[in-house]
Amino acid sequence: MQGTEDEIQIVLETDSFPLMELRHFQATETWDFVLVSDLQKTNPNRAHRRQRFLAELEKMGFTIKEVEDRRKLFCGIRAHSSLLSQYMELLKDTSCSPGALPTTTTRIRIVNFIIRKKEVDGENFDDLRKDHVFEAKFALHEREEFLQNNWAQWRDIFQKQPINNIRDYFGEKVALYFAWLGWYTVMLVPAAVAGLLVFLSGFSLFHASQISKEICEANETIMCPLQDHQRKYWRLSETCTFAKLTHLFDNEGTVFFAIFMALWATVFLEFWKRARAQTAFGWNLYGWDEDQEELAMELINNPTYQLRKHQHSYLRSGAILLFSLVMICLLIGMAHVLVLYRVMATFLFSHSALPFLERQLTTAVVVTGALVHYMIIVVMTKVNRKVALKLCDFEKPRTFPERESNFTVKFFTFQFFTHFSSLIYTAFFLGRINGHPGNQVRIGGQWRLEECHPSGCMMDLFVQMAIIMGLKQTLSNCVEYLSPWLTYRIGKLTEWPQGSRLHDPSLEEWLKNYSLNEVNVFSLFEEFMEMMIQYGFTTIFVAAFPLAPLLAFFSNLIEIRLDAIKMVKLQRRLVPRKTNDIGTWLQVLEAIGVLAVIANGMVIAFTSEFIPRLMYKYHYGPCSRGRNITADCLTGYVNHSLSVFHTKDYKDQFPSQGIESVTECRYRDYRNGTDYNYSNEFWFLLASRLAFVILFEHVALCGKLIAAWFVPDVPQSVKNKDLEEKYEALRKKLCLSSRVTDV
Predict the structure, then answer these.
(1) How many other C-beta atoms can be found within 10 angstroms of the C-beta atom of residue 730?
(2) Helices 548-565 and 457-493 meet at what angle, rounded to 10?
(3) How many CB atoms lie within 10 A of CB 250?
(4) Hey, which bits of 91-250 come out as E strands?
(5) What residues does each domain of the chain span?
(6) Which secondary-structure segment (H or E) carries 379?
(7) Run of H or E residues at 21
């Protein structure tokens, strides 16, 4: 390698320090990137390819410094200003004034592009890394004290985030992630308060609910056995406590809260769009074009670059769609695995020697089923990621941003079905396809399908939501922080001896960065995905779990600081990326908002007892048809909602008596007491449920449309400033054209 006049070569060899070859060293020089090679895996061929690659970078205008230490070769590289000036001119970097040096984030972004695209003998850096020519590539952390002292600290948990400082250090993409996460957390406050009020309002009716009173006093109401392996009749009054608990989240306020959350999701998105527009305009990125910048960098890097156009193949798209559908069916099948688990768990728990499991059989099955569901989520997340990446590679996207967008859609779709298939089954199918006593639907002709909790299916959904969301938020945060922290601490214990660093201050800084946790292009993507799943839990089934926004709020306060500490102190520096929006994630949020309206409407209609109570109150009960009485309008509802089964009609698995001779038992359904077909009340109730779903969705969607229209995506101030800039630019061009014409 050839050096310039002010560069020197230093070769030091001591007894206590390995051979160090320092090339092109300037004492005041800083470095854009550090490339690392593992000399233990290096053979003459790999060493030659490494030197060829570094030599080509030097010819382009890079300063290179090599330091060998403990079988690792560290190569610091820095681009000359003349090399960057071409990029700055063509990119028209608005973050710098004319003639000024590029910002650090711009330097790192451009240098990373050059290294990634540089090919030597048909091999780029990724090819060399796969063949162990290079082990790692990372940008160096600066001595950024402001972010460390005012952002990446637990004491700042309630402080406003320094978004502009984050942008100056990590780039626009990371800054917009934290801006969105902060905005989302702030907007969760009204949702959390509303959900908490709905939950607490249930306490006011904890002992006053007419339905709970009737259940607690139903000592003479004998219920049919819920399971084959626990063939005992039981009294309805045994579910007194659970009936009161169910009313905490299944009450009249649930409907209004579900509508409120549908409007909240829209208002949240619309106000975020406004905040995003203001932020992007303040960064001079309001009209930034990603494709134009990508083409500019490609042409500067390679003047003979041939435009790679967008491609579409119906055959390839059809194959991807077919495989995606197969994958979705597999994920839905995982919900059936949980069904089988619950059936088998019921059998095992009913034969357990522990009295508690026998007494609380249904609750134990629901809780352990939720734990199994969480473990399936952990495993399938890794599978979904690999499958989504393979499908993206097969799709052959034109650029990395396009690949990232396609990957986002596929991975989120798979993750959605992984997380919510079981919840969908619990909300809309559990206990509804089981038949009736004496004619139960069985798996393999032997095992009877699981029933809903004795207090209703809302209890199953509530417990499952609470456990999955609680585990995901707590365990995920712990793993997300402890994993890099432990890796970092272990790396500190096995660090290079201090004596070897004193000969070169640059090496000491490089080793500190090398010991940090590795990052990749999808590191920020994973943070977004985690938040999208949480947003889904917060909105889609919020009618069954009103405390979800409150849990998400406290989780996000911790998440922001965890991510800040991780990025600033525990991980290598992310390569800055330029953007003016959160990209495809915005469409994901809008899709979740629509799904939330549909799901919550169906939960209230088919899972909750709201519609049956409403129909009884105004059509069957004592207050129906305008009758005005002093009694509670829900008096007699419990008896009305239970069907009668004659025990003489049991064909097999005849229950043990347990109670004095029983001739009939009750079960939750609307069936005739003679032929056990669905009664007129069932069909009337079904029509009412469907009508409610249609009405709820239309009201909620209309509210969303009105909110979207009422709150413009872009503030008028931003539009006017952008219009003024265009106006002034055209005036300058017009004046310049007039002067040329006069000359």
Answers:
(1) 10
(2) 10
(3) 29
(4) 136-139, 222-223, 234-235
(5) 8-140, 617-691, 713-743
(6) helix 361-395
(7) strand 20-25
Alpha-carbon distance of 614 to 193, in angstroms, equals 26
How many other CB atoms are found less than 10 A from the CB of residue 86?
16
Q: Looking at residue 102, what DSSP letter applies?
A: P
Contact in structure between 209 and 614 (CB atoms under 8 Å) = no
Identify whether the C-beta of residue 20 lies closer than 8 Å to the C-beta of residue 71: no
Question: Residue 480 CB: number of other CB atoms within 10 A?
Answer: 18
275, 402, 627, 682 from 685: Cα distances, Å: 45, 48, 21, 5
Separation between Cα atoms, residue 118 and residue 319, nearest integer Å: 33
Gyration radius (Cα) of the chain, Å: 32
Please tell me the predicted confidence (pLDDT) of residue 660: 56
**What six digits make up the tokens of 382?**
């890794």
CA pair distance 285, 287, nearest whole angstrom: 6
Token pair recorded at residue 163: 């978004």
First to last CA, the chain: 52
Instruction: Identify which has the larger pLDDT, 232 or 150.
Output: 150
Tokens representing 450 are 């699981």
Q: pLDDT tens digits, residue range 196-231?
A: 988 888 777 667 778 888 888 888 889 888 766 556
Residues 6 or more apart whose Cβ sits within 8 Å of residue 177: 524, 527, 528, 582
Query: DSSP letters of 434-451?
Result: SEETTEE-EETTTEEPPP
Are residues 124 and 117 in contact, defined by beta-carbon separation less than 8 angstroms? yes
Q: Which pair of structure tokens corresponds to residue 215?
A: 């259940």
Total count of residues recorded for the chain: 743
Q: What is the pLDDT of residue 172?
A: 92
